């Protein structure tokens, strides 16, 4: 992961792993959250609705009780004829404020907690009131309208409509004398009491409230949210109220008069005269607040898990990616034809480990192939290549290439040799011809001329001089022709020719030559072998005479059935044999190279051993043609 | 006294002319025929029955040696005098072996030539002085004398050679180079004065060295 390219690759896998891990994690968390949330929500809502419902029932009963008790009290007063007496009292003695019964009325109002008490005659004339204020006629007509069905019983009248003084609730109590109505008592209920019941917010949080709405969709009790507004001015045309109007009590999540989503429990207030409903509600948001807290918890857990996933993913992806990156860079290096060094080391007991091992094998194979190819390139056709499998096409191709090159090379070598041999043969033939021409032609001619000199007339001493010159010319021609090709080699073979060679060396130098020709078998050497060995020895002796400064020379030939073994050793000054392989070989070097080539042309070998001060040894092995094994 | 009847064989007409001119001055020698190659010489020898044959060695269609060998088959009395350009030892020795009575180089003088033919005819031998020198040199080559002692290592090699081991096997066995084995072998041949391994073994057995 040293190069940016690699880290980019690393990130790719890391990114993928991270996305997969985190998406699994997220899905799990979200699924759990959704399930928990929905279960909890239902539970919470049910619990809240249960609470609201019980509050609703409680308040409904309290209000019903309250209204019922007020009515009972009024009925009791009726039975006691309290109002009748007061009626008479105030009807007969209108202007007196000093009557006992009237005083009782005040105490009654206080006792039963009525707001006001008014007494009217049948003509809507107000005979008595605990309040200074007079009621407008419209109110009384409204009352009339409300009670026209049955004027002889107690009614509860809701006169809140268009009222500027808030909710007005009146009890209508008829004053009867033997089944005839003589007057009316209007008792104004102290609505604050009811309001108080409603406002007792038992465990209703910050948004919980119970309120009363009537079938005209207007509120009767004060809104918790709009404490300064007259309840009658607040319209509650809501699903709950609609349900109640249809006679359906119940509970659920609805929009309240503010348009806010609330949990609501709603019931009708059981009363003969009033079409009132009590609703206990609470904002859904507040009811859901525990869930919100839970959601935050879940989010926190999600973040923690994501961090955990990130860490785990980092380690896992590192564990996966770093060997892959290493292997990948190895493959990339390999694809550029370079053998990766050092080799990737992935020791794992999993698929990546197996891949590492496979790539290791690939590299090894590549290496072996490279070595093999370079061996072949260097001309080593004996190089071995282990084929990897039956279907190793590269291996088979390489081995085939090697074999073909080997065949080709052998063929090439053979044809090069035969060309060289043909060239040499041509050369030797040419030499033989030249020698013949010189020796037999020019030489004989000169001899004949020399003989003719005798027949010519002239002074004897002049003729003797002439013959002497001609004779010298003949000797010179003999010397030249002997050097080019001794006649003896053609006529008597190798031993005679070498003997002659040794003779001439002895004649022209002081070197002592031990020449031995050991004939271990009876056979006639091929002329080309004879010529080759003769030329080799000629070259070798020539070198010795010219350069070696030797005193003794051994020239031994072992003529055996299977090979001709020749050794030419001298006690001269020698030379550094390792310098023979240098370029620009001249003198000794080129002579020795000729010796090697001659021997090789006969399928033989020439070994030249020398070191300064220790003489030189030339060994030649030439196999006999029938023993030549074709490589 | 009848002149000596000779055949002159040489593939060069000019040479033949020269010798003819030389010998024409002699009344003791008469040239009965001239051959210009070996085959012709054989035929003429058969038909003319000369007393001395004067021949070159290098000739087309049978060399001088071959002609001598062939003629010897039907005429055991004729004498041969070699007249050649070759002065190498091998030619001289081989000519002597073949039964030549004289060996002259072609630059010979009339007197010498005549002398050689007469000597040959009379059953003697004649070699010109330069040929005699070469023969003397050949005779001086060290040969014969006392048999030398073999060293322990040489005996070791000899035993292995006698047991039919090849040079390579001996070299491997004694952990020495092929050259050393061969030089031991040559040294033994030298010391025992023999020419090959077979003779060496025979001589070693005679001397109870094996």
Describe this structure as you would to a colleague.
- The complex is a heterodimer of chains A (631) and B (210).
- Chain A is α+β, with helices and mostly antiparallel strands.
- Among the domains of chain A are: 80-189, Beta-Lactamase (2-Layer Sandwich); 400-485; 493-627, Heat Shock Protein 90, CATH 3.30.565.
- Helix content of chain A is 55%, strand content 16%.
- Chain A has 15 helices and 14 strands.
- Chain A has helices spanning 4-79, 82-92, 100-112, 137-147, 191-199, 239-245, 284-287, 289-335, 351-377, 393-455, 460-484, 487-492, 494-508, 527-548, 588-601, and strands at residues 114-121, 126-129, 155-158, 169-177, 180-189, 209-214, 250-255, 261-268, 276-283, 512-519, 552-559, 563-570, 605-610, 616-623.
- In chain A, the strands form 3 sheets. Chain A has a 5-stranded antiparallel sheet with strand order 2-1-5-4-3, with helices on both faces. In chain A, strands 10-11-12-14-13 form a 5-stranded mixed sheet, covered by helices on one side. Chain A has a 4-stranded antiparallel sheet with strand order 6-9-8-7.
- In chain A, strand 4 (169-177) and strand 5 form a beta hairpin.
- Chain A is rod-shaped.
- Chain B has 210 residues and is of the alpha/beta class.
- Chain B has 2 domains: 4-139, Rossmann fold; 152-206, Winged helix-like DNA-binding domain superfamily/Winged helix DNA-binding domain (Arc Repressor Mutant, subunit A), CATH 1.10.10.10.
- Chain B is 53% helix and 14% strand.
- Chain B has helices at 13-24, 38-48, 64-74, 89-98, 110-121, 129-139, 152-162, 167-174, 178-192, 197-206; strands at residues 4-9, 29-35, 52-55, 79-84, 102-105, 126-127.
- In chain B, strands 2-1-3-4-5-6 form a 6-stranded parallel sheet, with helices on both faces.
- In chain B, helix 7 (152-162) packs across helix 9 and helix 8 packs across helix 9.
- The longest helix of chain B is centred in the C-terminal third of the chain and has 15 residues, at 178-192.
- The model of chain B has no long low-confidence stretch (mean pLDDT 87).
- At the A-B interface, helix 10, helix 11, helix 12, helix 13 and strand 10 of A face helix 1, helix 4 and helix 9 of B.
């Amino acid at each position: 992961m040293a190069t940016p390219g690699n880290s980019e690759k690393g990130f790719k896998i890391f990114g993928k792993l991270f996305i997969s891990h985190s998406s699994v994690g997220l899905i799990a968390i979200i699924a759990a959250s959704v399930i928990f949330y929905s279960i909890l929500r239902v539970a919470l809502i049910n619990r809240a609705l249960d609470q609201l419902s019980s509050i609703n029932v409680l308040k409904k009963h309290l209000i019903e009780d309250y209204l019922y008790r007020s009515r009972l009290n009024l009925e009791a007063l009726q039975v006691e004829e309290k109002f009748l007496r007061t009626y008479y009292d105030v009807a007969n003695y209108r202007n007196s404020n000093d009557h006992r019964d009237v005083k009782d009325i005040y105490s009654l109002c206080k006792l039963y907690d009525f707001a006001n008490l008014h007494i009217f005659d049948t003509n809507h004339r107000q005979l008595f009131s605990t309040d200074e204020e007079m009621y407008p006629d419209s109110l009384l007509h409204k009352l009339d309208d409300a009670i026209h069905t049955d004027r002889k019983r107690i009614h509860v009248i809701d006169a809140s409509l268009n009222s500027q003084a808030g909710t007005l609730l009146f009890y209508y109590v008829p004053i009867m004398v033997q089944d005839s109505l003589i007057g009316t008592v209007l008792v104004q209920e102290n609505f604050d009491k009811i309001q108080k019941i409603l406002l007792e917010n038992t465990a209703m949080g910050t948004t919980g409230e119970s309120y009363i709405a009537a079938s005209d969709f207007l509120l009767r009790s004060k809104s918790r949210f709009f404490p300064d507004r007259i309840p009658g001015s607040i319209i509650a045309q809501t699903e709950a109220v609609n349900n109640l109007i249809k006679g359906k009590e119940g509970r659920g999540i609805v929009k309240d008069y503010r348009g806010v989503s609330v949990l609501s429990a709603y019931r009708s207030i059981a009363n003969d005269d009033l079409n009132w409903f009590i609703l206990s509600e609470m904002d859904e948001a507040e009811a859901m607040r525990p869930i919100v807290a839970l959601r935050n918890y879940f989010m926190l857990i999600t973040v923690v898990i994501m961090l955990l996933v990130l860490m785990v993913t980092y380690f896992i992806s590192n564990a996966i990616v770093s060997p892959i990156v290493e292997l990948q860079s190895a493959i990339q290096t390999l694809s550029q034809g370079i053998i990766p060094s050092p080799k990737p080391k992935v020791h794992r007991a999993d698929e990546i480990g197996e891949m590492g091992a496979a790539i290791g094998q690939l590299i090894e194979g590549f290496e072996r192939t490279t070595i093999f190819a370079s061996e072949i390139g260097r001309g080593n056709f004996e190089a071995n290549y282990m084929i990897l499998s039956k279907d190793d096409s590269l291996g088979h191709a390489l081995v085939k290439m090697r074999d073909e090159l080997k065949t080709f090379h052998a063929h090439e070598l053979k044809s090069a040799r035969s060309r060289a041999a043909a060239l040499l043969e041509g050369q030797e033939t040419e030499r033989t011809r030249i020698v013949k021409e010189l020796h037999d032609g020019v030489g004989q001619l000169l001899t004949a001329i020399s003989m003719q000199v005798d027949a010519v007339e002239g002074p004897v001493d002049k003729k003797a001089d002439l013959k002497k010159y001609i004779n010298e010319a003949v000797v010179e021609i003999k010397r030249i022709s002997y050097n080019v090709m001794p006649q003896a080699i053609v006529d008597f073979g190798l031993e005679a020719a070498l003997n002659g060679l040794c003779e001439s060396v002895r004649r022209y130098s002081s070197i002592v030559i031990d020449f031995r020709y050991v004939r271990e078998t009876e056979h006639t050497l091929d002329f080309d072998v004879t010529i080759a060995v003769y030329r080799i020895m000629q070259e070798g002796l020539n070198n010795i005479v010219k350069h070696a400064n030797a005193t003794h020379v051994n020239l031994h030939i072992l003529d055996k059935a299977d090979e001709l073994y020749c050794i030419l050793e001298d006690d001269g000054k020698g030379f550094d044999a390792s310098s023979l392989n240098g370029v620009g070989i001249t003198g000794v070097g080129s002579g020795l190279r000729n010796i090697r080539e001659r021997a090789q042309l006969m399928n033989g070998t020439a070994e030249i051993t020398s070191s300064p001060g220790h003489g030189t040894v030339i060994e030649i092995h030439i196999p006999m043609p029938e023993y030549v094994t074709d490589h | 006294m009848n002149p000596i009847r000779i055949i002159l064989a040489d593939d060069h007409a000019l040479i033949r002319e020269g010798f003819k001119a030389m010998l024409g001055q002699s009344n003791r020698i008469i040239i009965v025929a001239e051959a210009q190659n070996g085959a012709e010489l054989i035929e003429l020898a058969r038909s003319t029955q000369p007393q001395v044959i004067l021949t070159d060695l290098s000739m087309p269609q049978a060399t001088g040696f071959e002609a001598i060998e062939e003629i010897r088959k039907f005429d055991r009395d004729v004498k041969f005098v070699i007249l050649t350009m070759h002065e190498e030892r091998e030619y001289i020795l081989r000519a002597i072996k073949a039964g030549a009575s004289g060996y002259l180089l072609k630059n010979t003088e009339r007197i010498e030539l005549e002398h050689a033919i007469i000597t040959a005819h009379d059953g003697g031998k004649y070699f010109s002085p330069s040929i005699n020198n070469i023969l003397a040199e050949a005779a001086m080559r060290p040969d014969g004398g006392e048999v030398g002692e073999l060293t322990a290592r040489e005996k070791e090699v000899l035993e292995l050679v006698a047991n039919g081991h090849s040079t390579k096997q001996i070299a491997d066995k004694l952990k020495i180079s092929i050259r050393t084995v061969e030089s031991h072998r040559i040294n033994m041949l030298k010391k025992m004065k023999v020419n090959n391994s077979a003779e060496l073994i025979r001589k070693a057995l005679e001397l109870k060295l094996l």
